[in-house]
């Protein structure tokens, strides 16, 4: 286990699953092998990606011929200060960012089906392992990902955006799942469109996710006219990568404006952004950070949290922090007088939860009064002398006149301080009498000795002690790795035999090798499932070994006609088959020139 994984916060463990390597079929391995060989050809030999890609595959433990073990990737990443864990399908964006902020790459254990080799909207091991991992050897990129994760976890999301994410997850899973129906997909698309209509404002979280999408997922780097690919979404889809470098896809210089471009995860992208350097990416990220509520603070940020309707944390100048759902505020001439938080409320000082504070005791929320005692209004810092001056003692009733003729009364239940200064009084059976003589009664009142909000950010102060909130549930897998039908079982067994023959022939040609190949050819030619990948794997091992005894390969002609006749497959499959044949032909040419 890598050091990064070993040091993960406990609350992220619910998203970590077992890879169950033995559940991968030989069809799955053939899909991996096809895509990785295409990647090496397009991104490596044709130099369409960053120069580090091929080297990155090796250094991060990514094999070409078989699906990697995520535990092996984790061990390889350790020397880079990173780690990797298997996760089940989609995980909530906040959880994904938490992993990334802790230098851990969450890798979906699923792999796209043989019917969706070219592209899948659902996360899979090809996207994460062959997309993100290899570029981590580029230090500037790895630093950007970590910085992004740390900053993004502070963004304020919204209930509507979380619901939209869930609809995207369901739709993407259904589009990838083997047994989903058109009716199910239509229902999911309708739900997605309804969620989309409910969003009248783009949250901070949605904006920074867009920034991630146009950089780490679908980013290009270098010159605007001839950029290189580094985004994981492109690195896991040669077909989309090929299109991305043509004039069909508009290229824009990477600026903060990219957050104004939405995207559809189920479709190829109409435009992409080109960073002139990794520093360009960092600069854009820092520019966005300056606009975030956790940097800006103040009334504007509180309103953003109130509108979000989810758990956020408000930090005051005196370093007191309150976490909860910000439900309501009382504002007088742009001055915040009270803040009401609902559900369980957490309190902390200097980014650390208050030990004596039990969130379970505040399940119904909390009312906060923001006011500095009159004698300390100029300095804004209330020292311990205030206790003696006012004669305040825990367990006794108090009555204090505040600014603007406001009076606060109640039983002093607790006192919180930090570094010699008082931060707040916790009152029970409290009352606020406003200047207009209107009175409000509260079972609990948190009198905060501050009026300046320095930061507001998404999520609780301390996730582990706060407990469950809208970070999201662990998702189910979209791709069932078992349950092959009768024709798929035949294809899987044949691909297993092809793999065994290929691996054994690398050291010594087995007995009855050609006869075994002929038997496999007969299985394919008589099968109802004449999938292009089955044909390609079989044709490759036959044509590569044709020189052994051409006379015994008389049956190969029929198979060759199938793989070279584009009319037998649809347009997309024909393109995939042709790309596979190019790699085989290059291998044959290399042998002749050797």
Description of the molecule:
The protein has 594 residues and is of the alpha+beta class. The protein has 4 domains: 3-158 and 201-288, Phenylalanine Hydroxylase (Orthogonal Bundle); 159-200; 307-466, SH3 type barrels (Roll), CATH 2.30.30.100; 486-593. Helix content is 41%, strand content 19%. The protein has 22 helices and 17 strands. The strands form 3 sheets. Strands 7, 8, 9, 10, 11, 12, 13, 14, 15, 16 and 17 form an 11-stranded mixed beta sheet that branches. Strands 4-3-6-5 form a 4-stranded mixed beta sheet. A hairpin with a 6-residue loop joins strand 3 (220-221) and strand 4. Helix 5 (93-101) packs across helix 7 and helix 7 packs parallel to helix 13 (278-289). The protein is elongated and about 105 Å long. It starts with a helix and ends with a helix. The model has no long low-confidence stretch (mean pLDDT 89).
Task: Record keyword descriptors for this entry.
single chain, 594 residues, alpha+beta, Phenylalanine Hydroxylase, SH3 type barrels, 4 domains, eleven-stranded mixed beta sheet, four-stranded mixed beta sheet, 22 helices
Helix share of residues?
40-55%
Rg, rounded, reads 30 Å
Query: What is the CATH top level name of the largest domain?
Result: Mainly Alpha
Oligomeric state of the chains in view: single chain
Strand content: 15-25%
Q: What's the domain count?
A: 4
CATH superfamily of the largest domain: Aromatic amino acid hydroxylase
| Class by SSE composition | alpha+beta
Indicate the mean pLDDT: 89
Overall body shape: elongated
Distance from first to last alpha carbon: 42 Å
User: What is the makeup of the main sheet?
Assistant: 11 strands, mixed
**Uncertain regions spanning at least 5 consecutive residues:** none
How many DSSP-defined strands?
A: 17
CATH architecture assignment of the largest domain: Orthogonal Bundle
CATH topology of the largest domain, what is it called? Phenylalanine Hydroxylase
Contiguous helical run count: 22
